[in-house]
Design a protein that fits this description.
Elements: H1 8-16, H2 22-34, H3 41-51, H4 55-62, H5 71-81
């Protein structure tokens, strides 16, 4: 399905992207808008894993204060951070 507001999956994911901080909202929504449709199942699984993380942990990862223990997840955090605004 195309990425539209009528797509129930996208509506649900867009809601889950709403975090406690605007900066995190923007990062998560940027990924959803720019990559979700073309992402493979593995990449989507990393995104869903991030959506289940606590905001303070995400903030430390995206600000480079800490790194995820999983190297693949660390690479995915970098991928999101590097997406154009």
């Amino acid at each position: 399905m195309p990425i539209t507001e009528e797509n129930p999956e996208i509506k649900r994911l867009r809601w889950r992207c709403r975090r406690g901080m605007r900066e995190l909202d923007q990062l998560m929504l940027r990924y959803l808008d720019q990559r979700w449709l073309t992402a493979d199942d593995a990449e989507r699984a990393f995104f869903l894993q991030l959506l289940d993380c606590e905001d303070d942990k995400l903030w430390r990862w995206f600000m480079g204060l800490e790194r995820p223990e999983n190297a693949d997840l660390d690479d995915f955090v970098t991928l999101i951070s590097d997406l154009p605004a």
